[in-house]
Amino acid sequence: MSPHLQTLLQSLPGNPGVYQFYDELANLLYVGKAKNLKKRVTSYFNRDQHENNKTTILVKKIVDIKFIIVDTELDALILENSLIKKHQPRYNVLLKDDKTYPWICIKDEQFPRVYDTRTMIKDGSEYFGPFPSGRMMHIVLDLIHKLYPLRNCNLHLSPENIQKKKFKVCLEYHIGNCKGPCEGLQTEEEYDNSILQIRNIVKGNVSTAIRQMKELMNRHSGNLEFEQAQQLKEKIELLHKYQSKSTVVSSDIDNADIFSIITDEKNGYVNYLKVMNGAIIQGHTIELKKKLEESPEELLTLAIAELRLRFSSNAKEIIVPFAPELKFEGAEYTVPQRGDKHHLLQLSKRNLEYYRKEKERQESLVDPDRHSKRVMQQMMKDLRLKEEPRHIECFDNSNTQGSWPVAAMTVFKEGKPSKKDYRHFNIKTVEGPDDYASMEEVIYRRYKRVLDEKLPLPQLIVVDGGKGQLSSAVSVLEKLGLMGKVGIIGIAKKLEEIYYPNDSLPLYLDKKSESLRIIQQIRDEAHRFGITHHRKKREKGTIKTELTLIPGISDKTAQKLLQKFISVKRIKQAKEEELADVVGLHKAKKIAAHFQPANSGNSG
What tens digit of pLDDT does each residue of 251-298 get? Predict the structure, then answer.
């Protein structure tokens, strides 16, 4: 460590704050937050090797450290988030959110316009959103325009300009879409009251807008102003209809933020739902790209800070799958185990799963190689393999109480079936139903041939069965000198347990994991392929015992007869002339003589 860094570390304060690491070219490498700057930053330099290799590399590159002291750890988180978004340092979590989402803007002006935009300008205007799609935003905007006639011109409607009668009403006034504030036909107080109700609607406070309209409707009705009262009644019905389309949760949940998270090796995904007055009014998902194997807690904390800031949320309740250490001022965490709040958390997680699957589907369509590489890397990690299983071979035995024993081998390459490489095996050395001995024979025959013909070895062998079948396969690989050169696992059907050589405890993969799905798929393919071959062999064996034992009747002739007569029973009952139409008179006489010896001499 350089003298400069040693001096910096000694002078670090114990306050909350943000630290920044720089390399020798003054490039910003990393931004981090700390409850105690001295303890956190010093911890990077107290060990020669970190658990994460990237952190070790990062520390070696640091030549300068800068820091900013703040009042609280929450302030540090907000500042950290701001600096990361501004500078995007190489070793920080990358918050991926490339879309420009639509917002509803209430313009900062007299007689404010209300319109949609995808660009936020810091001019004092209010922005509500972002909406996950333009369609959702236009549903809300259409409702607003049906309820409240507003201007859509960009005239400067100052009191002086209106008083001087600078403007004239346009077509929008004459068709009822505007009340003509440009000519003073609508007061600013009345217009601002509409804006107040619009603000409540876009915030999700539909009930407040309905209550205000009902009060005004009753006032008009009391004054015998029935036309105005009827107009308000129709607007209230529109609001009720809009409210019924929201995802209603529970009226007890008044104002809450819901966050769920799932992570994989490289990314974190966080879903945000906003609940107001018992209805979900917003939903948003962001992706965070890991740089230093950040924990789910770190990612969730960062996402909560980012999304609450982005959506200007002041919800006092934050519903989460686990409570991060960092508290947000004026808000409390809830970790529900049951009830409506737990249901909301599960709904949020389902949104995440859908988002990730859709992203993977798009990725596989746009860049199949990249998708395949990601899946292979995940399988290598999940199955504890030394290399990516780009070539997998799976084995399954099939027999009926020891009769016609066969085995099947299916092959997956890059996570997909390679049907041209599938193989059938007729068991030759095993008598009776012995799965273990059959597995030994098949594994030996397959990999003895691979070695003799110098064929490529798979990276993974999958054996359909538990510890017994796996042990049989392992013993053969040891004889052939292949143990350690290729990975091998067994999969037991009942609980989808994954077994490893010399390990009595099984591995249980996540039921929704892609790794387990591929293992199940290749196993099911082996079972299907083996059963099909076994059925054909059994049928052929049945034909042989009934038809091909007749002298001069081949397998081909037997198949012809079965295609015509469907079953051996019908062949037995057929007349010689009927048989002759299919196989000729000479063979027909032999068949008739075999099945109907008493009558064969009387035919023809």
Answer: 567 788 999 999 887 788 998 888 876 666 677 888 888 888 788 998
Which of 67, 92, 117 lies at the terminal end of a domain, its last residue? Answer: 92
Residue whose tokens read 């333009």: 134
The reply to whether 415 falls in a domain is yes
Q: Exposed (0-12), middle (13-18) or buried (19+): which is 226, by Cβ within 10 Å?
A: exposed
Task: Please give the Cα distance from 555 to 537 (Å, whole number).
Answer: 12
**Cα gap 41→528, rounded to integer Å:** 58
Average pLDDT in the chain: 82
Q: What is the pTM of this model?
A: 0.47
550 neighbors 572 (Cβ within 8 angstroms):
no
Alpha helices in 88-167 (DSSP H): 134-147, 159-163
Q: Assess contact for 80 and 32: CB atoms under 8 A.
A: yes
**Whole-number pLDDT of residue 402:** 44
For the chain, the distance separating the N- and C-terminal CA atoms, rounded to the nearest angstrom, is 109
- pLDDT band per the 50, 70, 90 thresholds, residue 570: confident
Query: Which amino acid makes up residue 410?
Result: T
Q: Are 91 and 29 in contact (CB under 8 A)?
A: yes
470 and 343 together in one domain: no
Q: Identify the three-state secondary structure at position 284.
A: strand
Amino acid identity for residue 222 in this structure:
G
CA separation for the pair 346, 588 (Å, rounded): 71
Last residue of a domain, one of 329, 362, 395: 362
| 513 and 559, same domain (yes or no) | no
Same domain, 413 and 511: yes
Instruction: Tell me, yes or no, whether 430 and 479 share the same domain.
Output: yes
Tell me whether residue 586 is in a domain: yes
Residues 278 and 358 in one domain: yes
CATH number for position 17: 3.40.1440.10
Instruction: Check: CB of residue 229 under 8 Å from CB of residue 220.
Output: yes
**Percent helix, percent strand, percent coil in the chain, to nearest 5:** 45, 20, 35
Neighbours of 44 (CB within 10 A): 19
* Chain centroid to CA 573: 61
Whether residue 38 lies inside any domain: the answer is: yes
pLDDT at residue 604, as a whole number: 42
What pLDDT does 318 receive?
94
Q: Identify the helix (H) or strand (E) that includes residue 214.
A: helix 206-222
Neighbours of 238 (CB within 10 A): 15
Q: Is residue 271 a contact partner of residue 348, using CB atoms and an 8 Å limit? A: yes
pLDDT in tens, 128-158: 766 656 666 777 787 788 788 899 898 999 9
CA atoms within 13 Å, Cβ hemisphere of 529: 24
Looking at per-residue confidence, does 559 or 491 come out higher?
Answer: 491
Both tokens of 418, joined, read 């390679």
* 342 and 448 both lie in a single domain: no
- Does the pLDDT of residue 74 top 80, yes or no? no
Pairwise CA distance, residues 413 & 393, whole Å: 9
How many degrees, rounded to 5, is the angle at CA 342 between CA 341 and CA 343?
A: 90
Question: Residue 258 class from Cβ within 10 Å (0-12 exposed, 13-18 middle, 19+ buried)?
Answer: buried
Residue whose tokens read 């860049």: 367
What share of the chain has pLDDT > 70, as a percent?
87
Number of domains in the chain: 4
Domain that holds residue 450: 382-536
pLDDT, one tens digit per residue, over 407-433 is 889 999 988 899 999 988 887 787 666
